[in-house]
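TA notes. Do not distribute before section.
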Amino acid sequence: MKQFFKFMFASCLGSALMLIVVCLIFIWMAGSSTSDTVTVKPKTVLYMNLDYDIPERTTEDDIMATMLSLKDEDSDLSGMNDIIANIDAAAEDPNISGIFLELSSIGTSPANIEEIREHIISFRESGKFVITYGETMAQNAYYLATAGNEIYLTPDGMLDIHGMASQVMFYKHLLDKLDIEMQIIRGPNNKFKSAVEPYFLDKMSDANREQMEKLLNSIWYKILTDINVSRGISINRINELADNLTLTFDAKVALDEKFVDGLAYRDQIISRIKTLAGIQPSKKITVLTNMQYATARPEPKAKADKIAVIYANGQIYDGKGDDTKIGSTTLSKAIREARENKKVKAIVMRVNSPGGSALASEVIRREVELAKAEKPFIISMGNYAASGGYWISTEGDYIFADATTLTGSIGVFATIPNAKKFLNDRIGVTFDVAKTNKNADFGSIAEPLTPYQKATLQKYVGDTYNDFTSLVARTRGLRQSYVDSIGQGRVWSGADALDLGLVDELGGLDKAIAFAAKQANLTDYSIKNYPKQDSWKDLLFSGNLPEPYTKSLMKKKLGDKYSYFETFESITNLEGVQALMPFMIID
């Protein structure tokens, strides 16, 4: 009996403590909501440090991360939506004097950098300054830096411009050592569908190398052209210096070659910013981060008419999704809600996906088809809109892509591992089966596919590829034979995709929204975002942290190895027939 009362008391005490903690959190939040109000004072400078994995949109409530000390006041995990909105608002805000970009490396792909860069250039048209500084600067950071007025590097710093590469991780020898055979079924003529090559090759096939070199050169040429326009340095000279790694280890060369405007320490940059902002040397600069300014920037009044922006971000899966992965159920519901909302007059779907489940992609495509029958439906392609990401984009009335977007990859595959030898011979596990039908054990990893099962699966994959090419041909007004010739799993840059007829125009999300407004005859409207994000309450009581913060923590722990972890994770989660494009581009 004593033990009973002991445990009962402990349980009651634990519940009481939890209730007290929750109450304190509510009190803390109530106090912080009034005491931490951000105001924009005259001569304020907008500060941007983009050295993190930039999400498509800011997590609605970052309060959970604040409570758990996952971010300090200098941290910033703003999404693309707030970064761009901040730049545009700051251009019109009389209290913002300029932008200070402190960059080392930017945690996103060239397409997002391209969009941010274009808005920075537009910001400069207001007559305000943009100063960029870095102790060391990777080439993706430098690409953005060239949008500014002045670029500075620490005297002993590095400007790491070395060109672009695509790195693929291969598992063939690992599988051989484990006696695991990956049974691979590709669509007919899908020689460029390189997602499965790591299972049976130890290096790139000729076809894959061909497509990667074409893709990388297209993206690199865009970057070189933009640097040439901004800095007046010839493309040949940039390539020569990149080939020799000349800039990487000597900051003075970067200055001599006019890649930067000066070599200085941070205190000297602060003095320069004070001068440009008209602040006395003895006074402090008022600085706001992206996340701070997002809560204080002037917001337009809500309008009755809405344009829905639907975020389709991440690999495509069947079922539920979130801000980092596309779930067919979640995204379909979001599209349906936008279609049924009478205040929504047009829809823009922002696609940032390397693909995934072909079935899930088709479920989402159907919802796009239904929605565009009722209101304008425009596609905005971000970093990736390839394979399944392209599949869900095809029904759009009009498709925008950035020049450096990775798109196309029209192809499909299926994989089923045969682990019989590994299980039997390596770890001594055997299986036996009783079944009602001849193929009741289809898909088991304990036995290889029978010739009939393999032929059946091959037909299904072939039919899916035919559906894919037929879909593209119908929606893009192309011959199916032509689509097959530019398909076969091949990845294209946005610039090449425009020439091939796979997209309609080059431009970012803002252009897509403006086009949607024109199609709906709107001049006065508000933006409504879908899917609805989880609130801090949902996150608190579910025990889950916002994905951008957990990813940020992982990247800090794993460093450069995080990209390998991410690729391996995406491949190990494959189910069913896939329309996927997994590889890394290193810039």
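Switch to the second chain here.
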Amino acid sequence: MVKGFLNFFNKEVSGIHQAAYLLAFFAIFSQILALVRDKLLAFTFGAGSFLDVYYAAFRVPDFIFVTIGSIVSMTVIIPFLMERLSKSREDARKLIDSVFTVFFVVIVIVALIAFAVSAPLLKFLFPGFLSEQLSTLVIFTRILLLSPIILGISNLFGSLTQSSNKYLVYGLSPVLYNVGIIFGIIVFLPVFGLAGLVWGVVLGAILHLLIQVPAVFKMNLIPRFTKKVDFPLVIKTFATSIPRTLALSFTHLSILALLSLASTLSPGSISIFNFSFNLQSVPLSIIGVSYSLAVFPTISKLYVQNRKDDLTREISSSARHIIFWSIPFTVIFIVLRAHIVRIILGSGNFDWADTRLTAAALALFAFSLFLQNLSLLIVRGFYAIGNTKTPLVVNFISAGTIIISAYWFLNLFNNHMVFRFFIESLFKVSDIPGTSVLMLPLAYTAGSIVNGIVLLIIFGSKLKGFVRSIFPTFFQSLSASVIMGAFIFLSLRVFDNIFSLDRFFGLLGQAFFSATIGIAVGVLILLLLKNNEIKTIWANAHQKFWKKAVIVGPDPEVV
């Protein structure tokens, strides 16, 4: 039985779409647990001051993980590792030990510095917090500083397992990470008090690492400390990660700036932003991340082989599937925003006002969902063709747009009543306080739209025929989704008198049947338009997943 269990973890997959669907399966599983996590937090605390502190505590550890942890990300390590494994296991061992030693020393030193300066640093970053909130924030942040160290090591282990196609092991890592957090909420919170929440996060990081240990041990490549560090090799490896690290850093800096602003707004603003951001991240993980990761090894190989026509065909196919799925998600999130938030988060201390604000924020995020998903693929496309500079520059522009837009939108919202009335009326939140928080997801969406459009234009100029190839799917998916959205909206009105919207199952029934009718109509429209993506999906659904392939698992980018 044990042998069969271990063999299961060594299974491989063939085909980009099949790989994407398998990665999506793990992403869905992980996201379900993430939603359970958010449900428990919302039920227990509501969108208030405490959760503001809890979410703020992740920002410094997240930033450390993104900047230092990306040094050992799979995108960086795997090409070097594969090259050395092709020569000898001893060369691979030298790379692993050198990178591990330098990484561990650097991240521990950075974490210790952050620990020492956390009090004044956090007071500067979150000026709206009261002294009691800041005291709790410092304690939480210091505990969470363990996470980037553990997850960084897990990242390196992930590079090793993926180099041997043990992707199922890594696929379970984020699942166990969320299991640890949920365990912290259910078990640690009653036992250890509020600090139990963040100790649950640390437990999740440990589980994220431990699930990979047996596979790496079996490969006989467990990283070890070494006094004979190959510094030229380490510098070469780290230099490769710099553009990606800076690009991710800009994104996290923009989010940090938004949360810093949120700390000066009404209590619960950080929580509202995070709840809605986490909800809009579900389709990003399932669609954008899955497809971009599944296609990356293939397009990298095609570029090296100078097969540009094949490269264009593969990345265009993935882009069309991303568009096919993303636009319907956007429409569903906008039309069913209140139902989604109330079903997933509503109950306990998460009241109707919290629901309405979170739903409005979710709708604002959703407007950029299609371009956020496409951007994930295009960035991987740039990496595959050896261009790391363009995503870096565009990400810098996008981050700047987000930060500047946030200040501008807040000023406009607070000083121009016509604009404020328009936003509040559009999302039906004019009768509740704290609506200024909606300017933050609006700013994020503005930056994401700029990011997506600029990346699409530049990538299209480098890969001839790419933009033209995705237009048919875009218009087909958009047409079907708009009609789908109209039918969902009309169905909601019809079911108003059938289901009791004061109860969970009544709300779920109305949303489910309305969405079912709308989706059925959308599928019918796509069939009438002879959409190719539906044919591909149907064909892949009838093939076996468990075959062979090389898949690069997702790099965790946040603690």
